[in-house]
Every structure is written in structure tokens, then in C-alpha cells.
């Protein structure tokens, strides 16, 4: 096989992996949108907050250390213990559930039956609040996240492909892990939403609040459930992206990459989030590979958005979104 | 009215039981507007109880009070001999009161089967984590049992052929039937129907009438219904409450209500016999 083709294959493989990372973020959006019709602007910040909390717990940081020090004149920074990665992840998941309960109590509960735009504005507020709250709680410095995920190039894959094709594929170990985790997460979430009792209740609430109440579904329970799951997905996304590029404010901006994914896959489809992510991931890598040199490169920054725009024109509900049927 | 303490026999020979629900001096105000003023009546085991009245008489508000969607400004709701505390609509549903809506409230994106399965939610006991276990925790078995019950209702209401169709695609009359099916799936102790025949053609109305009677016959379901069509009400119901401007102006068997002068004035004024 010519080297050019092999290289394109490698680019595609890397694109797929990058796409999975986008999908992880998009998933959180889809979950909340499906269950409550809210476009949750704060999803990216949730991922940042989850990653910050995870690092904080793992490193044994004292939460609100700066605040405590400023008020009391003490100099506390750390508890002096390290928490094992798995336990820290579990604790962070609990924190995210707690956050979901607080969000429901302080925000959503008071906005029942409001227009979607009002709920959307509320999530913008939440995003800014959480961003600041995360900083106050854990400090604003850039942190490294290490939960023991393999880093670097997968050497096995490289040597195998080198022997077989005479060309070693460079694939990041972390990307492979992310792919496996994302596939598991999506399978679990799809099964949950399609077959479980709570999943059915969740879809019911998304469709019609009144009707859901009339069959005995507690809206508040479902909202807490959905935001907890979205928090958990944010945690997974935070772990993957945090391990890749460190935990810092820019982590919350990955949400922007999720937008074109959502437009492609459809706001209401869990598999759509995955397929959309893959298309964007592969698309932007291949476009950069083939067309990049012709037009001066750096196409990865805008390609996804242009693709999403084209989709909006021809298929506004996305690839897998529910077709809008309007009976007149 | 026959014996008020131990029930009564209907004209067609069905035995009606004791009081399931009693509404005592219900008043409902929205700001300065009084939707319901000081209305009392009871609902007995196994009967078909109709609430009729002109538009804006407060019928739907009454149904919303019973199903917990509205909280009465004054008055008490007694259920099975105990005063019902103020509770949210989903709690009321969990107590066994199922309802349909005037404007149809179904889950349009879900299939007919899934819609009706939501009616079983109050009967499903397995929790979140048991669901995750599926085959190991018996959640799969529970799902199958409920599915069987739902299939029975689907057969009963003759909607087998649309089982997998998304509800959003169905015509109006069938949607109404699916909504009834969902309410029935909960095996309610009181079934509330808000204008089950509104907007239907004659044939659909006859079907719906038959279903309501069959349901009552087959499962002994206590039914409270709101209806405009006087013919339908007189055929269907055992006892009728007549409302006008938020007040109760008549209460009794159809024949008695039909001859009540207040009712004739307010609502049946068109009858010249």
C-alpha cells in the first residue's frame, strides 16, 4: 500500500479517537436536553468542576483553602494524605450527585413550566457561578490529573502495524482508553433509557410534564437523576480531557467543540452524539490532511462549525434527531 | 337517590358499593375569580359518575382538584375514609387515581406500547440499582409481568395493530383511546376522564362509550367523567353532578337530573318537552 494511503488511514484512526473525546462532552448535553428540553450551557463547566474536584480529592487539598486562610489567618493547604484514584473518582461522583440535588433545589424547582430560553439563561448563570466556585474551592492554578490512565503512544499497535504493513501507526493510549470507556458509557445509557423503568419515566418527562405527573412520576426525582447522570458523564469527560491536557479553565471550553457534534447527531439522540463526534473527528482530521496544505492549514479550528452549518441547512434535526412532525 | 350508606342498585342491576371519595365544601379561587364555590359530592365504588355543565362551569377544575393538579382554596377531599392531605399530583396518581386530559397529554415521541407502559410505573417496585441488574435482580421478570398486563389492555381496547406506532402519528380518536389505555394500565381505583369523547365523530363516540361501559363492567372501575354530549351522559352514567358558574345545581341519577328545573334552566334550556 502506498504510504500516502496508510498515512490517511492513520489520520482517520486518530480522527475517530478525537471524535470519541468530543462525543463524551456532547453526551452530557444530549442527556439533559432529552430529559428536560434544556440546553445546558454549563455542561463544559461541569466537566471542569468535576476534574478540579477529582484532583483536589486525590491530592488531599483542603477545599476553600484560600478563603479559610484569608478569613482565619491560618495557612492550611493540604490534609497531607493522598486518596487512591478509584476512591477519589467515586467520591467525586458523589459530589456530582450532591451538586445535582442542589441545582434542582436552588434553580430548577423554581423554574417549572418556564420557557426553555429562561432555563437556558439559568444554565448560563450556573456556568459562571460554578466556574468561580470551582476556583474558590480548589484554587485557580493549572493542575495535572493522573488517575493511572496509560499515556503516550501505543507501542504494541505500532510494532504490529509496522510488521504487517511496513508502516507503524501512531495511536495514543489515552485515546484508546477513551474510546473503550465511551462505548461502554453509551451502551449503558442507551440500555438504561430504552429499557429501564426510570429510563421510560425520563423519556416521559421529556415529552410532557403534565402527563408524566398523571402517571405518578415525580419530576423532581427525574431531574435530580438526569443531572446526576450528566454530572457523571461530565466527570468521565473531565477525566479524559484532564489527563490529556491538564485541568485548567480552558477545559470548560471543550463544550464549544460539542456544539457542532450535537448539530450533526441531533440534540435528542445518544447514539447521534457518538456518530456526530466521529464524523467531526474524522472529518476535521482528513480535511486538514487533504485540503489543509492547499489553503494554508489550521482548518481544524473552523471545519466542524462549517460542517454543522451545512447540516443545519439540509437536516435541521440532525442525523438521528426526532423528526419534527406537526399536525395541523 | 337510593340508600346512601351501603350503596344502591343501578337501573341495569349493577350493585354500587360504598363511598370511595368524598368532596366536602370545595372552593377554588384563582385570584378574584371563583372557579368552584362550595361544592360537595361523593363518588361510590364501581359507579360511573358524570360531571356536566356549560362551558366554564368549573368541571375541569373539579377534576383537577380530585387529581391533585389544583389545590382547593377551601374544603376537604376524603379518600377511603380518611382526609387526604395536600399532595402533589404524582402522589395522587400513586394512590391509585388515574386520569386523562381534555387536550390529550400523551408522550408523542414514544410508541403506543411505551406510553401504556408508563401507566404501570406506579406498580413497578424495582429501584434504580435493581434495574441495573436486570436479569440478576428480577427486573427483567417484573418488566415481563407488566408487559403482559399491558397487552391485555391493548387487546381490550382493540389497538393491537398500532402497538409500535409513535403516538404522534396517530389520528385524534386513537390518541384518546391510547390515553384511556394508559390510565387503565395503572389499575386505578378511580378513573378520571376529562371529556373522553370531545371532538370525536359519531362512530368514535360509540366506540368510546362502549369501552367505558366495558371497562366498568369488566374491572368494576369507578369512573368519573366530564362530558358535554347530553345523550352520552344520560346513557353512560349512574349519577350526575350538574355544575353552573362554579356552583352545584343538581346531583342524582340521570332521570332525576333531567327533570330538575334548575338544570333545565341552566343547561338543558333547549329541551322544550
Automatic annotation (TrEMBL), chain A:
InterPro entries: ABC_transp_permease (IPR001851), BCAA_transport_permease (IPR052157)
GO cellular-component term (any): plasma membrane
Membrane topology: Multi-pass membrane protein
Main location: membrane
UniProt KW Transport keyword: yes
One Gene Ontology term of the molecular function aspect: transmembrane transporter activity
Keywords: Amino-acid transport, Cell membrane, Membrane, Transmembrane, Transmembrane helix, Transport
BP GO terms, sorted: amino acid transport
A Pfam family matched in the record: BPD_transp_2
Cellular localization per UniProt: Cell membrane
Annotated transmembrane regions: 12-33, 45-65, 85-108, 117-140, 176-196, 217-241, 261-282, 294-314
Protein family according to the UniProt entry: Belongs to the binding-protein-dependent transport system permease family. LivHM subfamily.
Protein name: Branched-chain amino acid ABC transporter permease
TrEMBL record, chain B:
Keyword Phosphoprotein on entry: no
Keywords (A to Z) from UniProt: ATP-binding, Nucleotide-binding, Transport
GO cellular component: plasma membrane
PROSITE patterns in UniProt: ABC_TRANSPORTER_2
Keyword RNA-binding among record annotations: no
An example Gene Ontology molecular-function term: ATP hydrolysis activity
Domain ABC transporter: from-to ranges: 21-270
Record's protein name: ABC transporter ATP-binding protein
Organism: Pseudothioclava arenosa
Amino acid at each position: 500500500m502506498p504510504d500516502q494511503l496508510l498515512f490517511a488511514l492513520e489520520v482517520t484512526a486518530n480522527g475517530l479517537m478525537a471524535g470519541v473525546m468530543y462525543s463524551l462532552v456532547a453526551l452530557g448535553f444530549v442527556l439533559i436536553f432529552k430529559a428536560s428540553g434544556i440546553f445546558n450551557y454549563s455542561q463544559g463547566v461541569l466537566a471542569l468542576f468535576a476534574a478540579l474536584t477529582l484532583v483536589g480529592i486525590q491530592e488531599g487539598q483542603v477545599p476553600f483553602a484560600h478563603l479559610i486562610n484569608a478569613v482565619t489567618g491560618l495557612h492550611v493547604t493540604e490534609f497531607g494524605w493522598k486518596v487512591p484514584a478509584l476512591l477519589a473518582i467515586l467520591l467525586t461522583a458523589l459530589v456530582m450527585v450532591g451538586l445535582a440535588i442542589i441545582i434542582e433545589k436552588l434553580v430548577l424547582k423554581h423554574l417549572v413550566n418556564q420557557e426553555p430560553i429562561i432555563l437556558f439563561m439559568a444554565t448560563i448563570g450556573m456556568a459562571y457561578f460554578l466556574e468561580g466556585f470551582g476556583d474558590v474551592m480548589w484554587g485557580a492554578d493549572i493542575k495535572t490529573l493522573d488517575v493511572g490512565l496509560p499515556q503516550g503512544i501505543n507501542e504494541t499497535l505500532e510494532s504490529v502495524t509496522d510488521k504487517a504493513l511496513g508502516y507503524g501507526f501512531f495511536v495514543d493510549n489515552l485515546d484508546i482508553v477513551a474510546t473503550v470507556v465511551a462505548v461502554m458509557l453509551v451502551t449503558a445509557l442507551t440500555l438504561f433509557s430504552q429499557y429501564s423503568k426510570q429510563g421510560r419515566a425520563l423519556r416521559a418527562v421529556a415529552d410532557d410534564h403534565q402527563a408524566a405527573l398523571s402517571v405518578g412520576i415525580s419530576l423532581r426525582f427525574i431531574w435530580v437523576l438526569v443531572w446526576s447522570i450528566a454530572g457523571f458523564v461530565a466527570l468521565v469527560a473531565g477525566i479524559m480531557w484532564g489527563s490529556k491536557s491538564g485541568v485548567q479553565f480552558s477545559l470548560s471550553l471543550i463544550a464549544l467543540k460539542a456544539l457542532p457534534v450535537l448539530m450533526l447527531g441531533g440534540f435528542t439522540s445518544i447514539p447521534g452524539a457518538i456518530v456526530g463526534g466521529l464524523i467531526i473527528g474524522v472529518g476535521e482530521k482528513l480535511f486538514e490532511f487533504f485540503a489543509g496544505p492547499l489553503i494554508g492549514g489550521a482548518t481544524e479550528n473552523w471545519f466542524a462549525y462549517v460542517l454543522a452549518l451545512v447540516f443545519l441547512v439540509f437536516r435541521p434535526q440532525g442525523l438521528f434527531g426526532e423528526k419534527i412532525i406537526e399536525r395541523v | 337517590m337510593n340508600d346512601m350508606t351501603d350503596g344502591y342498585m343501578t337501573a341495569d342491576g349493577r350493585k354500587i358499593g360504598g363511598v370511595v371519595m368524598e368532596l366536602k365544601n370545595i372552593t377554588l379561587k384563582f385570584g378574584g375569580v371563583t372557579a368552584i364555590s362550595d361544592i360537595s359530592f361523593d363518588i361510590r365504588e364501581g359507579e360511573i359518575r358524570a360531571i356536566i355543565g356549560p362551558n366554564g362551569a368549573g368541571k375541569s377544575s373539579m377534576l383537577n382538584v380530585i387529581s391533585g393538579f389544583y389545590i382547593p382554596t377551601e374544603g376537604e377531599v376524603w379518600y377511603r375514609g380518611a382526609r387526604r392531605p395536600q399532595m402533589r399530583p404524582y402522589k395522587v396518581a400513586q394512590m391509585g387515581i388515574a386520569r386523562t386530559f381534555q387536550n390529550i397529554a400523551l408522550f408523542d415521541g414514544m410508541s403506543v406500547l411505551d406510553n401504556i407502559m408508563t401507566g404501570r410505573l406506579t406498580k413497578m417496585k424495582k429501584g434504580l440499582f435493581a434495574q441495573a441488574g436486570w436479569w440478576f435482580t428480577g427486573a427483567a421478570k417484573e418488566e415481563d409481568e407488566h408487559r403482559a398486563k399491558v397487552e391485555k389492555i391493548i387487546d381490550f381496547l382493540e389497538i393491537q395493530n398500532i402497538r409500535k406506532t409513535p403516538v404522534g402519528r396517530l389520528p385524534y380518536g386513537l390518541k384518546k383511546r391510547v390515553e384511556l389505555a394508559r390510565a387503565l394500565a395503572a389499575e386505578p381505583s378511580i378513573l378520571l376522564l376529562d371529556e373522553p369523547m370531545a371532538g370525536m365523530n359519531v362512530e368514535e363516540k360509540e366506540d368510546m362509550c362502549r369501552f367505558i361501559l366495558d371497562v366498568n363492567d369488566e374491572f368494576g372501575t369507578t369512573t368519573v367523567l366530564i362530558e358535554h354530549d347530553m345523550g352520552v351522559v344520560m346513557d353512560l352514567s349512574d349519577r350526575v353532578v350538574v355544575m353552573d358558574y362554579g356552583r352545584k345545581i343538581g346531583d342524582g341519577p340521570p332521570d332525576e337530573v333531567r327533570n330538575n328545573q334548575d338544570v333545565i334552566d341552566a343547561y338543558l334550556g333547549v329541551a322544550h318537552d
